[in-house]
Amino acid sequence: MTFVQLLNSFFDRSVSAFLTQIRPFGAIAAIVVCVGLILGAAPVQASKLSGGDRLIARQPSTEVRVSLGNGSDALKFFPDQFQFVAGKRYKLVLNNPSPQKHYFTAKDFADSIWTQKVEAGKVEVKGAIHELELKPGAEAEWIFVPMKPGTYSLRCTIPGHAEAGMVGTITITSDSQQA
């Protein structure tokens, strides 16, 4: 019996039948199967979250607004300082009233949060997000839950924009520090 057939038997039969069949392959095969099942069950998107995480995904979000530039073409984020509390759900509403495109880039911040989704127009994106480009007049909503406390840099990556002042700071505090 091949390893794939053994896996199929696991899903088709009881656990005891599976364990009886895997016994000849030894402990290593059992460990490989268990690790595979555990990794395969890891939460990746909201529909696969554990019970507690589903509650976070359903809790009301706190809305925070940010403008990338302004109508006078200032190279600045408005506001340029953000504070979030780990474990709380946020909706960051980004808009670009400027006549040129801008980027909202905060890679280390993005690595320290769980992104539920980003919506722009009639498009919804799920998964890891590291940078958002907003063209003139564009708006996007980024729904996320901060996970790792720390202070993170924000910048527009268009050449010359960060140097002209289009930078900011994002701070994630622990629940006990409350924003």
TrEMBL record:
<keyword id="KW-0186">Copper</keyword>
<dbReference type="InterPro" id="IPR008972">
    <property type="entry name" value="Cupredoxin"/>
</dbReference>
<dbReference type="InterPro" id="IPR041716">
    <property type="entry name" value="Cupredoxin-like_Cyanobacteria"/>
</dbReference>
<feature type="transmembrane region" description="Helical">
    <location>
        <begin position="25"/>
        <end position="44"/>
    </location>
</feature>
<feature type="domain" description="Blue (type 1) copper">
    <location>
        <begin position="65"/>
        <end position="172"/>
    </location>
</feature>
<dbReference type="Pfam" id="PF00127">
    <property type="entry name" value="Copper-bind"/>
</dbReference>
<dbReference type="GO" id="GO:0009055">
    <property type="term" value="F:electron transfer activity"/>
</dbReference>
<dbReference type="InterPro" id="IPR000923">
    <property type="entry name" value="BlueCu_1"/>
</dbReference>
<dbReference type="InterPro" id="IPR050845">
    <property type="entry name" value="Cu-binding_ET"/>
</dbReference>
<keyword id="KW-0472">Membrane</keyword>
<dbReference type="InterPro" id="IPR033138">
    <property type="entry name" value="Cu_oxidase_CS"/>
</dbReference>
<keyword id="KW-0479">Metal-binding</keyword>
<keyword id="KW-0812">Transmembrane</keyword>
<protein>
    <submittedName>
        <fullName>Copper-binding protein</fullName>
    </submittedName>
</protein>
<dbReference type="GO" id="GO:0005507">
    <property type="term" value="F:copper ion binding"/>
</dbReference>
<keyword id="KW-1133">Transmembrane helix</keyword>
